[in-house]
Write a structure and sequence with these properties.
There is one protein chain. With 171 residues, the protein is mostly beta strands. The chain contains 2 helices and 11 strands, in the order E-E-E-E-E-H-E-E-E-E-E-E-H. The strands form 2 sheets. The protein has a 6-stranded mixed β-sheet. A 5-stranded mixed β-sheet has the order 3-6-7-5-4. A hairpin with a 4-residue loop joins strand 6 and strand 7. The protein is globular, with a radius of gyration of 16 Å. The N terminus and C terminus are likely disordered.
Length: 171
């Protein structure tokens, strides 16, 4: 598979990339490790009035207010009760002019893995019934599918207009 068929963040100069893997609603997902600032235990959330359902509110991380996004709601995954394994992944997402900092929930964070491009395939094309703007690629590893998430597809409607996290935390 050529590197141009997948998003540029998937390929490093060696042809391999590092991803952090995590569970969400029974599935395994991955994010490019370069987006992940840190992984934390759950912390109290301050709700924001009139916010979209996937924006849980703000969390305080060492004096920094960070918006917390619930990917379950964003992906239409059914609600689950929180467990002791739930974590917050703090992401730093570059935009045209700045880096946005956002937290997202995970049912469980696994590990950082290397995924050579040979293990990746494009997301399935299911026509208009499912849009793959959230999934960049699918990895096949140990008889398991890992969905590599498209950060810009999740957090930005297009390259110029961001979702409601815009303006909440600029770095």
């Amino acid at each position: 598979m050529s590197q141009t068929s997948l998003s540029p963040f998937l390929a490093s100069s060696s042809g391999d990339s590092q991803f952090i893997t995590f569970d969400l609603g029974g599935g395994t997902y991955a994010l490019g490790i370069s987006y992940v600032r840190e992984v934390l235990d759950l912390s109290p959330v301050t709700r924001l009035p009139s916010s979209p359902p996937y924006l849980l509110g703000m969390i305080d991380i060492r004096g920094e207010a960070i918006p917390l996004i619930d990917l379950r709601k964003k992906f239409s995954i059914p609600h689950a009760d929180r467990t002791s394994e739930w974590r917050i992944m703090v992401l730093e997402i570059p935009t045209e002019n700045e880096v946005k900092t956002v937290g997202t929930l995970a049912d469980r964070v696994h590990e950082v893995i290397e995924l050579p491009e040979s293990e990746l395939s494009p997301p399935p094309d299911l026509g208009s019934t499912w849009k793959s703007i959230f999934v960049d690629a699918v990895a096949h590893r140990n008889n398991q599918l890992i969905m590599l998430l498209q950060v810009n597809g999740i957090f930005f409607e297009d390259q110029h207009r961001s979702l409601p996290i815009d303006g909440l935390q600029d770095r």
